Amino acid sequence: MGKLTIALMLGALAAALMNMLVLGSNAEVQRQRLNSCLGKERLTRLRFYLQDLVGGENKTVWRVAQCNLTDVLPSEFGTVSVLDNLVTTGPEIDSQEVGRMQGLIGLADLHEMALAMLLNIVFTEGEYKGSTLSILGRNNLYDEIREVPIVGGTGAFRMARGYVITRTYSTDETHFRSVYEYDLVIFHMDEDNDVTRLNSD
Buried-most residue among 27, 36, 72, 153 (CB within 10 A)? Predict the structure, then answer.
């Protein structure tokens, strides 16, 4: 291999290394700029209770679709429902309102009573009024303790991620009512470093 070829190869290698350093430096600058806008994440823990009314005059869960297997399988596979449930600070239905849980649920397991959940928690009262959290995941109703992901949010919960631990608190078949306890662990953007507010200053 000639000296000229070796020199060209070394030059190309040096240029590639320099390019990598520049790109890495730019990426670090961008990361620092993003962090300066977003600030540190905030961790919020919440507990509330979901009032689930599947019958009666004031029912809040409505079946909108099913498939040919729904009435055949014990898992009620194919059932799709929409809901607009009251969310409260305590398990009693007359507890202080926190918000509403709205969205779609479908029984999507051929063998178990397991929900595929697409839900929004809309905060209507209190510190987080006007904010929302989005839940998307699987909820196996046979499990005593269930875990479902939090995948997003708005308002105070912009860029939210986290999880929900839920369990059945009580069931009243006479009044078609179940109460579910929800414990939420949420990582989200600190409102004091809201990028939209920073850009408007």
Answer: 153
Closest listed residue to residue 127, CA positions, set 104, 159, 99: 99
**What CATH topology corresponds to 42-189?**
AOC barrel-like (2.40.480)
For residues 179, 173, 60, 186, the Cα torsion angle rounded to the nearest 10 degrees is: 20
Q: Which residues contact 9 (CB under 8 A, 6 or more apart)?
A: none
Q: What are phi and psi of 138, to 5 degrees?
A: -100, 135
Residue-level pLDDT, tens digit, the chain, 201 residues: 555 555 556 566 666 666 655 555 565 555 555 554 556 789 999 999 999 999 998 999 999 999 999 999 999 999 999 999 999 999 999 999 999 999 999 999 999 999 999 999 999 999 999 999 999 999 999 999 999 999 999 999 999 999 999 999 999 988 899 999 999 999 999 866 554 443 444
Strands (E), the chain: 41-53, 61-65, 80-88, 97-107, 114-123, 132-140, 146-154, 161-172, 177-189
